[in-house]
């Protein structure tokens, strides 16, 4: 019975993590197909990625540079962009930065906000705040105007390291620039401010939802409800210790059904 409870907990934990992890990501606009096309990753792009990872695993800077000089010099535009997107999705931070810099050196390169969105998001998740700021400034230097997504990713980066003042300053700058906060912006702000114990700030952000959203109260309720999913593990971990695992299963199924209703 102990094994059953353990296996059940692992399963429910995985489901809970999967649900909670999509709360903010699902609000981001879905990325375009790999390389801004509908085809699968090319053989050349796959080989380039594999060669990069192999050189990195061997801690060989010379070999890494050789891969860039040989395999990447032959990649088409779409393949190079594919490679960047794959490295970002796999959280290969160092490699993604190098490929991004390589993309910028290409003759066909034109500044595009979506490239910066993904880089700032990735840097924020890795708590590389100073570098995230550099990329934010770079997009402005390249003549791009930060949009809602760019500001939101920067806000999220600051909140990753609980830099509340910086996050709120960026939020204020977003509104001053004429960009309207969206669901992703409010979700990131509300959840992180509450987690940091900044109840007053969280309440003020919730009040502002009415200025930008059609059904603010419904949205806030959804944010709070989804936040409960991430807290489910704590509840279940206590319940799993009980002697009746089937009651735990019923509890969890009822819990999940409340979110799919």
Automatic annotation (TrEMBL):
Molecular-function annotations in GO: RNA binding
Entry annotated with the keyword GTP-binding: no
Keyword hit for Ubl conjugation: no
Example of a GO biological process term: Group II intron splicing
Superkingdom, natural source: Eukaryota
Region forming the signal peptide: none
Protein keywords: Repeat
Placement of PPR repeats on the sequence: 112-146, 147-181
InterPro entries, A to Z: PPR_rpt, THA8-like, TPR-like_helical_dom_sf
Pfam family for this entry, one: PPR
PANTHER family in alphabetical order: PENTACOTRIPEPTIDE-REPEAT REGION OF PRORP DOMAIN-CONTAINING PROTEIN, PPR CONTAINING PLANT-LIKE PROTEIN
Protein name (database record): Uncharacterized protein
């Amino acid at each position: 019975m102990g094994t059953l409870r353990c296996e059940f907990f692992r399963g429910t934990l995985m489901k809970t993590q999967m649900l909670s992890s999509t709360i903010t990501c699902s609000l981001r606009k879905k990325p375009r197909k790999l390389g801004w096309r509908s085809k699968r990753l090319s053989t050349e792009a796959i080989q380039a990625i594999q060669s990069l990872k192999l050189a990195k695993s061997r801690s060989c800077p010379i070999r890494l540079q050789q891969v860039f000089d040989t395999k990447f010099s032959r990649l088409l535009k779409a393949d190079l962009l594919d490679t960047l997107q794959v490295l970002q999705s796999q959280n290969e931070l160092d490699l993604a930065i190098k490929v991004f810099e390589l993309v910028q050196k290409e003759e066909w390169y034109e500044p595009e906000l979506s490239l910066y969105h993904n880089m700032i998001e990735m840097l924020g998740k890795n708590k590389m705040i100073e570098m995230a700021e550099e990329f934010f400034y770079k997009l402005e230097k390249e003549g791009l105007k930060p949009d809602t997504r760019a500001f939101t990713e920067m806000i999220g980066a600051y909140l990753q390291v609980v830099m509340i003042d910086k996050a709120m300053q960026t939020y204020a700058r977003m509104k001053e620039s004429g960009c309207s906060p969206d669901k992703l912006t409010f979700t990131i702000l509300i959840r992180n401010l509450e987690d940091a114990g900044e109840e007053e700030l969280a309440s003020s952000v919730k009040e502002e939802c009415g200025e930008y959203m059609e059904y603010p109260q419904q949205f806030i309720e959804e944010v709070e409800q989804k936040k409960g999913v991430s807290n489910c593990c704590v509840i279940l971990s206590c319940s799993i210790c009980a002697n009746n695992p089937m009651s735990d299963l019923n509890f969890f199924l009822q819990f999940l059904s409340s979110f799919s209703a």
